[in-house]
Each structure stands twice: as structure tokens, then as C-alpha cells.
Automatic annotation (TrEMBL):
Gene that encodes it: pgmB
EC number(s) on file: 5.4.2.6
Annotated site, Important for catalytic activity and assists the phosphoryl transfer reaction to Asp8 by balancing charge and orienting the reacting groups, chain positions: S115, K146
Top-level division of the source organism's lineage: Bacteria
Organism: Companilactobacillus zhachilii
Annotated protein name in UniProt: Beta-phosphoglucomutase
Positions that bind substrate: 8-10, 24, 43-48, 51, 77, 115-119, 146
Cofactor: Mg(2+)
Length: 222
């Protein structure tokens, strides 16, 4: 029986994955690494330093910089990202997600946040959605980022639930892998070709409702 929902933030609740991509694209240009859609998809859901390392590897530049230089570049990306957040407000909540979260709370499901982003508390505040979350995982306390299952295992644990009692929602391939590894049911939101590992797929956040999830779970015999 499902008792809890584990949420990714960027690209699931808010349109902020676009801002992350913009800021990484800007840095990739500066580093002389060609930006592609495939690289963009690989970076989704992945933590700050892991993302920088993926970009450098993608461009064959993994040995070109010292750890200190890499930290400086990661900070530069974050500064650019924060500038893009300046004007962030409720209008950047993805279609249907505010109603969905309110509906979950009204039905007494437990809700936790499983975002890799250290900026996630700020984003949730700006969106006016922080009060709906019973618990949050602090990504700074994790040993391994997505696609490792640790963040989703913890997101269930902080609700005092087993992962098997939870549904995780993701827009990123690395995130779906993480949910699946934890044992929770995975919902992939976005291109089903990219998110083919998910237990349940929706093309768009507007399709994500309790009813639709229940229907899909019945179909898949959960
Ligand atoms: C994830 C985003 O939620 O958080 C990634 O999908 C981002 O794009 C990661 O790299 C880490 O975020 P931050 O804000 O801590 O750099
Ligand atoms: Mg995401």
C-alpha cells in the first residue's frame, strides 16, 4: 500500500531544470565543450561536482583542471544559476503540480523531498510550496548522488516508511535509476524514450494526478 510520495524538484515541480541547463551550457561554452541534447539529458538530476566532471569528460578534458579550479567553475555555474532564480515565483511551478501536491496532502499521504540541489530549500520557499513537505533530504549529507539509490532510500526513511510503500517522481534518467535502486515505485515524467526504465511514464506534469497514477498502477499490477 502506498503511503508516501518522494519528490524530485527541478523539472518535476518547477521549471528550474531549464535554468540549470542554461547555466551549465554557459559554462560548457566557456570550457570549450560542445553542448548537446544528450549531454543535457545526462546532467539532469546529477549533483553539482558530478555534473562538472561529466561535462569535462564529455569534452575529453577530465585531466585538464585541478580540484581547486573545478571548485571555482562549479561556483561560477551556481552564481549564474542563482541569478536566473532572482525572478523565480509561483508562475514557474509546472502545470498541475501545485494541485497534485495539495491533493496528496489532503489525502494524508506523507511527502518528502529528494532533490540533489543545495538550492532546493530556496526554490521551494520561492514557489510557496515548502509547507507541504513533511521531510526533506539534505543532499549535503549524502555519500553518493543520483543515480545511486541513497537519496531515495533516505527520502522514504525520513518519513518512517519503507521504499516499497512510496512512489518517487522524476524527470531525469539518473533519478529514475536511483528510485528503482531504492525499491520505490518510479514515475518518469518526460520523454518515455529517455525514461524507459520507469515503472510508470507520463509525458507531462499535467498528466500526474492521483487517479492517473492509480490507473497506471492497476494496469501494471502493482
Ligand atoms: C538537481 C538538478 O536537482 O540538482 C541538477 O537536476 C543540479 O541540474 C543538481 O546539478 C545540483 O544542484 P545544485 O543547485 O546544488 O547545484
Ligand atoms: Mg529533476
Amino acid at each position: 500500500q502506498v503511503k508516501g510520495f518522494l519528490f524530485d524538484l527541478d523539472g518535476v515541480i518547477a521549471n528550474t531544470s531549464v535554468y540549470h541547463a542554461k547555466a551549465w551550457h554557459q559554462l560548457a561554452d566557456e570550457l570549450g565543450v560542445t553542448w548537446t541534447e544528450d549531454l543535457g539529458n545526462q546532467l539532469k538530476g546529477v549533483g553539482r561536482m558530478d555534473s562538472l566532471n561529466l561535462i569535462l569528460k564529455y569534452g575529453g578534458k577530465e585531466n585538464d583542471y585541478t580540484e581547486d579550479e573545478k571548485i571555482k567553475y562549479a561556483e561560477e555555474k551556481n552564481d549564474n544559476y542563482l541569478k536566473l532564480l532572482d525572478t523565480l515565483d509561483k508562475s514557474e511551478i509546472l502545470p498541475g503540480m501545485e494541485d497534485f501536491i495539495k491533493d496528496l496532502a489532503a489525502h494524508h499521504y506523507l511527502i518528502s523531498l529528494a532533490s540533489s540541489s543545495k538550492n532546493s530549500p530556496l526554490v521551494l520557499e520561492k514557489l510557496g510550496l515548502a509547507q507541504y513537505f513533511d521531510e526533506k533530504v539534505d543532499p549535503a549529507t549524502l555519500k553518493h548522488g543520483k543515480p545511486d539509490p541513497e537519496i531515495y532510500t533516505r527520502a522514504a526513511e525520513v518519513l518512517n516508511l519503507k521504499p516499497e510503500e512510496c512512489i518517487g517522481l522524476e524527470d531525469a534518467s539518473a533519478g529514475v535509476t536511483s528510485i528503482n535502486g531504492s525499491g520505490a515505485i518510479s514515475v518518469g515524467i518526460g520523454d518515455p524514450k529517455v525514461l524507459h526504465e520507469a515503472d510508470i511514464n507520463f509525458n507531462d506534469t499535467s498528466e500526474v494526478t492521483l487517479d492517473n497514477i492509480k490507473k497506471e498502477m492497476d494496469k501494471k499490477k502493482f
